[in-house]
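ok trying this again, last paste got cut off
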Amino acid sequence: MSTSTSPQLPKLIPDESEVLELLKQTGALRYGHFRYPNGLYSDLYLQVALAMRDFQIAKRLSVALSRKIRQNKELRAMIPQLSVVSPATGGLPVAYGVVEALRANQVYWAEEDIEGRPQRFRQFIEPKPGEKILIVDDILRSGAKLSAVKRLILDCGAEVVGIAVMIYQPTPLTPVYDDVPFFYLAKLDAMYYRDLKEVALQPGEEIIDVWV
């Protein structure tokens, strides 16, 4: 009598190693020598948008992050009234994916009209006073845009009730957000250097400038 083995179903919430492997497979996670806009050097570069181009991967990651959020009973009770804000347009694929998976209320996003000017919401597209807001983004790295959009939300009279990101990649400059629940699928501990002399370049290797 022959036996067959059923295919193994994906975990509801993939562990960190599985998430990072998905990012590597899509080219979203790269290793080498990179110089960030803030002047720091690092041994890795992450662009989650490269992974979000694949619908199935985007859906799996969005559902996984939504399940982490649902584990918080206070946020779970808010979901029908909960709105999501992305700190920038680059985080919108994640924001819409999480809203769909949660069946939350709606999405807002902040943007820069001109580079160097403060972030803002578009006219008539901004949180309402008293609205419950979950900030969602693809990566938390320096935290500059996330902190700025948090201030914008509070200026609108809305309430930030949580923060959720696909990847937490803190730098020495990243603030700690411990006043609200904070969720992420994986943490990346990259090496950072302030001086080019600290970067261990091998013959034939080069520094790649990244702008996001």
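PB: full thing came through this time. The longest strand covers residues 159-168.
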